[in-house]
Amino acid sequence: NAGVTQTPKFQVLKTGQSMTLQCAQDMNHEYMSWYRQDPGMGLRLIHYSVGAGITDQGEVPNGYNVSRSTTEDFPLRLLSAAPSQTSVYFCASRRQNTEAFFGQGTRLTVV
Amino acid sequence: EDQVTQSPEALRLQEGESSSLNCSYTVSGLRGLFWYRQDPGKGPEFLFTLYSAGEEKEKERLKATLTKKESFLHITAPKPEDSATYLCAVPNPQGGKLIFGQGTELSVKP
User: Fold this and answer.
1) What residues in B contact A99, CB-CB < 8 Å?
2) Which of A39, A90, B89, B108 can pair with B100 through a Cys bridge, CB separation 3.0 to 4.6 Å?
3) How does residue A1 score in pLDDT terms, banded at 50, 70 and 90?
4) B108, B80 in Cβ contact below 8 A?
5) Do B43 and A104 touch (CB under 8 A)?
6) Does B49 contact A105 at a Cβ distance shorter than 8 Å?
7) Phi and psi at residue B88, to the nearest 5°
8) What pLDDT does B70 receive?
9) Do the beta carbons of residue B54 and residue B99 sit within 8 Å?
10) How far apart are CA B25 and CA B110, in angstroms?
11) Which residue in B has a C-alpha nearest to residue A91's C-alpha?
C-alpha cells in the first residue's frame, strides 16, 4: 500500500528559485494538507484542501501556492525560495474527522 | 481560540519507569483526538483515535485516555525503543484543519 507519497525526499535550492513539492495519495481521501516542521516549532499548517478544486490557507501560507485539480494530488509550489523556507515539509491526507496519514517528508534547504 | 497544548515538552525516563504525557485542548464540539508518534527524520505515525470522554485505547505499553478537556498518554514500563516525539491533534470545529500540539519528546534510557 503506497498511502501518501512525497517527492523529492531531499532538495537544495538557491534563493529565488522556484520548485514544486509533489504529494499523492491513493486512499481516496477528501482532505489533504501541507505542514512544515522546524526545530522547536512543531507542525505548522501551510495550506489545506477539503476536496478537488477547494483550497484554503493555514497559519503560514506566505510564499507558497497550492492547487487541487484531482482528489489524489496536492502539489505545493514555492514561488521564489527564501532561506526562511528551509524546513522539513510533510503532506497528509485523511477523511473528515478521522486520523491523518503522513508522507515521509521532503527536506528542503535554501541557500 | 482553538488550541492544543502538550506537556511536558521533554521527558526523560529510565527503562521501566512508567509516566504520562498530557494533551489539553480548547475546541468546541470535539470531533476526535489523535495521538501520533514521530521518529527523527520520519513522518508522524498514527497511534490512537479517541472520540468521547471516558474512552480508552491501548497498544502494547501505551494507553490513551480522554476527558472533556484533556487526554493522557500513559506509558507503562517503557523501553528505549519507545523514545520518540509524541504528538496529539484535534480537528477544528469546521473539520478542515488538524490542530497539533507542540509535542513531547520522550527519551527512555536503559
Assistant:
1) 32, 34, 46, 49
2) B89
3) low
4) yes
5) yes
6) no
7) -125, 155
8) 96
9) no
10) 33
11) B43
The full DSSP string for A27-94 is: S--SEEEEEEEETTTEEEEEEEEEETTEEEE-S--TTEEE--SSSSB--EEESS--GGG-EEEEEEEE
> Grid coordinates standing for B91?
480537528
- Is A46:A106 a contact under the CB 8 Å cutoff? no
Q: Is the pLDDT of residue B4 over 80?
A: yes
Residue type at A57 in one-letter notation = Q
Extract the C-alpha cell encoding A110: 535554501
Residues B3/B97, Cβ–Cβ less than 8 Å: no
Characterize the bridge pairing of strands A64-66 and A76-78: antiparallel
Location of C-alpha cell 482532505: A31
Q: Quick check: B65 and B55 in contact, CB under 8 A?
A: yes
What radius of gyration, in Å, describes the C-alpha atoms of chain A? 13
Position A42 pLDDT exceeds 90: no
d(CA B96, CA B78): 35
Is residue A71 within 8 Å of residue A51, measured between CB atoms?
A: yes
Residues B36-91 have pLDDT tens digits of 999 998 999 999 999 999 999 999 999 999 999 999 999 999 999 999 999 999 99
Determine whether the interchain pair B34/A99 forms a contact, defined as Cβ–Cβ distance below 8 Å: yes
